[in-house]
Amino acid sequence: MKALILTRYARANNLVLAGIPAPVAKANEILVKVHAVGLNPVDNMSSKGAFKPMLKLQLPATMGSDLAGTVVSVGSGVTRFKPGDAVFASTFDLGTGSLAEFAVVPEHAAAHKPVNLDFVQAASIPMVGLTSWQALTERANVRPGQNVFIPAGSGGIGTFAIQLAKYLGAKVATTTSTGNVEMVKSLGADEVIDYKKQEFEKVLHDYDAVLGTVKGDAIEKSLQILRPQSRIVSLVGPPDAAFARRRKMGTLFAFIFGLLSRKITRLAKKRGAEYSFLFAYPDGQQLAEIGQLLEVGHIRPVIDKVFPFDQAIEALAYLDQGRAKGKVVVQIV
User: Facing residues of 207 across strands?
Assistant: First the structure.
């Protein structure tokens, strides 16, 4: 089969479309004929070695983590799926890639594809859906009437997280450029800051939760808008000691990550806030619940551009520019 392979950690010329043997499903896995793959910033970051200590990659490795496709075969222990089922899943951090003609997926990571979505739409969901779900419901515990700040509202995470936060009953503020203001408003954003004209920390106040999606000093600036007993959930770092402990990385990494996050953790405590770093994890049950929201129209996919499989490297380069409005998807079949 054809797959996009990471040959080495480097900033360029480290990806190649190559023929490799098709995988075989183990007892608790399903073999999926992949129809489409959603791309995520972590794909580019991991190919450059940004998460070497954290991710289970054995080079050469198949790239990609989001997929939608059709079940071809199931392992002997699988009970929830059968050949012919349409599914979607995230295999992030499971040591198996999705940018290939076939992929194996642990049963626990997969869910049936929402019936109202095509494969391209479904493939755009898993990572951003699970990340938003885990950040807003598990970490931030967003409740009706709370104020939530989700910067970069026109990006892949932003377009989904805004809709989920609104479904949870929150008032949502976001940032975007002038040309995207109406788009993020159409997704439910209550207050939109045009970052080319205003600084969000001078406009917003009394917020209960922040979803950290922007690198640089945006996380520290967001402290200025928080009220006591609020929460910051960062997707861009720095990782904290609790993250190392959850992943059982040992005392050395817990110490290192504690040092890396010491400043933001200390500043957050001064505001009466709690800081945490999130690596989303695959969860088929959560994905099924997200699928229900998609089926009834509470959330809709937002897709910027679809690339054919033979342009997968170009698709990753396009995503890396940081200008996509919604998700970038590679169509395999």
Answer: 226
